[in-house]
Amino acid sequence: MKTLLRMVPLLAAAALFAGCGEEPQVIKYEAGKYQGKRDTLPWDSAAYGGDKARWESDMRARIGNQNELRRMPAD
Amino acid sequence: MARMKFLCDAERCIECNGCVTACKNENEVPWGISRRRVVTIADGVIGKEKSLSVACMHCSDAPCMAVCPVDCFYRTEEGVVLHDKDLCIGCGYCSYACPFGAPQFPQEGAFGQRGKMDKCTFCAGGPEEDGSQAEFEKYGRNRLAEGKLPLCAEMCSTKALLAGDAAEVANIFRERVVRRSGNGADISGWNTAYGKGSLEADMKKGAESGGGAK
Amino acid sequence: MLTRKSSRSPGSVGNGPSEALAGYVAPRRLDRRSFLKRSGIAAGAGAIGANLPFAMVRPAEAATAPASGGGVEVKRSVCTHCSVGCAIDAEVKNGVWVGQEPVFDSPINLGAHCAKGASVREHGHGEHRLRTPMKLVDGKWQRISWETAIAEVGDKLLAIREKDGPDATYWIGSSKHSNEQAYMFCKFVRMFGTNNTDHQARICHSTTVAGVANTWGYGAMTNSYNDMQNAKAIFFIGSNAAEAHPVSMLHILHAKEGGAKVIVADPRYTRTAAKADQYVRLRSGSDIPLIYGVMRHIFENGWEDKKYIEDRVYGMDKIREEAMQWTADKVLEVTGVPDDEVRQIAETMARNRPSTVVWCMGQTQHTVGNAITRMMCVLQLILGNVGVAGGGTNIFRGHDNVQGATDVGPNPDSLPGYYGIVAGSWKHWCAVWGVDYEWMKGRFASQAMMEKPGITVSRWIDGVLENNDQVDQDANLKAVVYWGMAPNSQTRGKDMLEAMKALELLVVVDPYPSATAAMAASVRKDGVYLLPAATQFETYGSCTASNRSLQWREKVIEPLFESKPDHTIMYAFARKFGFGDEFVKNIKLEKDAKGWDEPNVEDILREINRGTWTIGYSGQSPERLKLHMKHMETFNPRTLKAEGGPCEGEYFGLPWPCWGNPELKHPGSPNLYDTTRHVMDGGGTFRARFGVEKDGETLLAGDGSASVGSDLPFGYPEFDHVLMKKLGWWDELSDAEKAAAEGKNWKTDLSGGIIRVVMKNHGCMPFGNARARAVVWNFPDPVPKHREPLFSTRPALIDKYPTHEDKKAFWRLPTLYKTVQQQFKDVSKDFPLIMTSGRLVEYEGGGEETRSNPWLAELQQDMFVELNPKAAADRGISDRDWVWVKSPTGAQIKVRALVTPRVNHETVFLPFHFSGRWMGEDMLNFYPEGAAPIVRGEAVNTATTYGYDVVTMMQESKTTVCQIVKA
Predict the structure, then answer these.
(1) Which of B83, C36, C230, C574 is paired with C212 by a 20 to 30 Å CA distance?
(2) In chain B, what residues touch A63 (CB-CB under 8 Å)?
(3) In the complex, which subunits touch B with 3 or more CB pairs below 8 angstroms?
(4) Domain-by-domain residue ranges, chain A?
(5) B185 touches chain A (CB under 8 A)
(6) How far from chain centre, in Å, is Cα C411?
(7) A39 Cβ under 8 Å from any chain B Cβ
(8) Poorest-confidence range of A38-47, B165-174, C224-233, C873-882?
(9) Do B165 and A63 touch (CB under 8 A)?
């Protein structure tokens, strides 16, 4: 019995410290933790040279091609 | 600038697979990986068959990004979800997490060893220099950097698949819906409220009194 | 890989708030990744990871360089697959095809593509192409040089010609040739000395052309895909546009969303039916009673357009009589369609005008195809829908240039432009070709043979196998040249194999070895040659879409491997056969990149312009067409008219008829027979082709019925020098024109003067102003009648509606009808399932080209049969089981079962694009090495049966019978 009682704090300590040296296993998603290579912005390309406004404007114009009502208007 | 989005109009999709091969073409996607696929529900069932083109949805809160053990995912300013193949360990966890089956793996060898994860990039390439050979080989074409939109949507045979800035996509779709509903399609929920066929019956009555046959 | 990260400096990179550029943080805590690393597993994973390929791309020898950046040329071409004619911008760098962009400017497709169009860049890879000429030697394919190939094949053909006559050869041309190539092929075969030539149109829309042309003048699509936007109701019958012509659905769904009603009638619930407002399931081959039922409802309700019929139609009373006999119960008995559905079709079409009809193989591929197609024409005449925007008969043709090949290419019974093979037409074309008529006549076995229609491609096998005394020519066929067509699209594959065995020589000219090579090698040891042709992306020229618009293709890349464009190969053989000079009399030769002589394509088109007055291929000069391709954005997609810019006033592609010579600047005719337009703005009337009166009734249009601005506001016959003089219009011709037009009519006047004066000065149609014929007295059934297919599952209906009598010499061969139908009257005892076949969107035609494209092949890897759940359960078959599809011919094919409610329990469906397996065996070993398609499967036509249209010899592939058992 006494041995057991003496064991309890040890066991408790072991149990308590078992978690040390390990971080929680649940991955906490935090924005910005990307570990890979950097990517360039689309408007930083050779075609746009950093002109974000022009790129955005081109994107808006380009999607018009997906709308056939532009060239075949509804009556 | 709002975020980039796909929208597939199920009333227009005819399962022609143009989006699938356009993607294969532009990104030289190998056999065994379909970045984009067409899903058909109620195949062959009269009155019920519908098709939808599905690829990566570029989620705002992407499950793939959340579960990746090596954090190889990132989201660009326009909301495109991309990843770094150099970091990818091919564990397949993102594939389990994604509800759309977007992350895919090439089959390598007889033991089913997974290659690097590959998925739709919204034709925005990946974390290599824009337009470089390295980017093309790993991720496919970077059309956004050229001021173009994903080829799947640009080549869709019936313009069912739309891709681009969400506000613009919504505008196009809204214009279409408005045009449709003015001609009997039950967008407004009339049939749901007043019983099946009641909208058509009312419209017919209107046509007969006002319009009429030739 | 995992170690690399730690060498990066931490901290934020980049300026913006972008999360993507946030800094890399070296892990200081033992998180999961580091844990893995420390436990040693990561090292292993890292090691594996470092070796994992990026799984992207083939070795960089083919087109892998990114398209952006300098040095990229853009070539504009047209898809090589279906007849919609989607434009393509190909990006080429250093001669390699590196990118493909949609052409949003195109008024036809607005940048849209289906799976095939979106993947054409793969033609630049061509991994499974036929790379070099090959010869079958002792059962093995051996490479030979071009020089050897031309010499050996040439010698063999000349020897056969010498011994057995030129008619012992058969030349199968192609609907995938450009207009110029198809035209030259027609000339080539005729200069060789035979009319034994044909192409895919025979088995596609030959019954359409015959039926429709005999109704009102031309056999082509009357309106256009674009024009369907104007329709208020669209009736598809026997057409699966969603899979066969996907981009047409852009216009159709646009119309539907604007309120148009869509009706689809098909034995199978297709993807097109999935978009229909009304779906009608009818028994395959019962179209005629269904349409009569529709007509009966229209007549009973007085919905017909009485004025239109009175002014522009002959013989409607007889149709009415027949229609009234098709009562509801009779229609139900034959078609399986209840009367209320039939009435709904009639009401929708009548109350929502202008309404249009669309049909494809579902209607054409029957023994009564010529009658079925006429029913659709008559239906539209009843409703007054012909010659109206949003109306018409919109016939969707198949291959990318089947329209052009039919118009100016190798037909067994006509010369380019549908000029018949009578002496007058021969003289006309000899004048255009610059050769002496007597010389031309001398090339043939006799004048009789020169004026006798040749054997059709659907029957070449009988030209080989039939008893010689039954064949209406001297010798049987000894040599067959498959120049751009696949063998597995023709019925009776089992008999075809026998025919291939019996030939002395078989030649294939194709970008792919095609199933012909494999079939031949499986039954022969020698006597087969394969010559590599270039695809349409490796050459240039014009092609005609289904709506009759011509588009010009630029050359994208040089011919791959050792392939050559078809016209270059033709010229080489023409030289070998001794008529090289005559072949290119008015066409200059240029040296190609390999130093071979290539006939100049623009010159060929100019020659077509100079001779093809009948259908108005005379105004589409290369210059005008190229201008259209360059300024596509100026054309309005609804009207096809350019509303500004360099092509102002013209219709896109100058759809034929584009009357007169190019200087007349006719804008093309977007909708045929449209009397609301002036003839110089694309307007027209029905053609006066059948005489001026019949049985006391006039065949010319009624008084007051003529095109806008016509100086003759009533019916008139076609124009010739006599009529010109009578009207006092002769002196409006110039002296040069008078010299050419003297003694001629509008079709043979090489100056185009008659056309010019008649149209420009007087607003009249050169071909007259007549009535359409609802009764075609020169057809076996002047009023269309229902007749059961040869292989029918309903013996009682065979008794009531029997097929035609046998024919002794029909296109040079005995052709059976009654005998076969009687012999197989009770075939449904052992073969109770109606077997029909059709298209898949991923593949095209015989399929060897598209099944060699990995991007397409991956999507349809198995040949299958669609089987209804009840039919499957009755046979103990589950989905994806292997089954044998057995034919009464004894043939059987092994395919997978696809259990689906698309078909009902008495019908099964198989796609026809597969080949490369024969009755259960893979034919891979019979292909030249490296040139077999990726996906191989059974050809449905291995198991199809005898049956041919009674006018055009179209094959009856849509209705035969089979039994299915689990394998």
Answers:
(1) C230
(2) 149, 162-165, 168-169, 172
(3) A, C
(4) 43-75
(5) no
(6) 14
(7) yes
(8) A38-47
(9) yes
Integer Cα distance of C855 and C315 in angstroms = 52
CA distance C178 to C698: 41
Residues in chain A: 75
> Token digits for B108?
């390598």
CB C221 within 8 A of CB C406: no
Span C741-753, average pLDDT:
95
Report cis status (omega within 30 of 0) of the bond before C511. no
Q: Which of C13, C32, C253 to mutate to test the interface with A (most CBs of A within 10 A)?
A: C32
| Residues within 8 A of A (CB atoms), B 76-105 only | 76-78, 82-84, 86-87
Residues C556, C562, C568, C571, Cα dihedral to 10°: 180
pLDDT (0 to 100) of residue B108: 64
Q: Which residues contact B88 (CB under 8 A, 6 or more apart)?
A: B70, B72, B116, B117, C49, C52
End-to-end alpha-carbon separation of chain C, Å? 51
Instruction: Test C64 with B137 for CB contact under 8 angstroms.
Output: yes
Residue C314 to residue C653: CA distance in whole angstroms: 33
- Residue B111: is its pLDDT beyond 90? no
Which of B160-174, B186-200, C894-908 bottoms out in mean pLDDT, i.e. has the lowest? B186-200
Instruction: State how far Cα C170 lies from the chain centre.
Output: 21
Residue C47 CB partners (closer than 8 Å, separation 6+): none
Q: What is the number of alpha carbons within 13 Å of residue C838 lying toward its C-beta?
A: 31
SS (H, E, C) A18-46: HCCCCCCCCCCCCCCCCCCCCCCCHHHCC
Strands C134-137 and C96-102: unpaired
pTM of the model: 0.90
Domain boundaries, chain B: 4-209
Surface of B (160-179) touching A: CB under 8 A: 162-165, 168-169, 172, 175-176, 179
Both structure tokens of C447: 């004048």
Tens of pLDDT, residue by residue over B51-97, are: 999 999 999 999 999 999 999 999 999 999 999 999 999 999 999 99
Q: What would the two tokens of residue C949 be? A: 């249209």
Q: How many Å separate Cα C792 from the centre of its chain? A: 27
Complex prediction ipTM: 0.90
C7 touches chain A (CB under 8 A): no
CATH architecture designation of domain B4-209: 2-Layer Sandwich (3.30)
Helix axes C287-301, C316-325, angle to 10 degrees: 100
Q: What is the DSSP string of C727-748?
A: HT-GGGS-HHHHHHHTT-BTTT
Nearest one of C535, C536, C575 to C554, comparing CA atoms: C536
CB-CB under 8 Å, A31 with C254: no
C291 in helix, strand or coil? helix
Are C777 and C699 in contact by the 8 Å Cβ rule? The answer is no
Residue contact B154–A67, C-beta within 8 A:
no
Mutate to test the interface with B, among A23, A29, A68 (most CBs of B within 10 A): A29
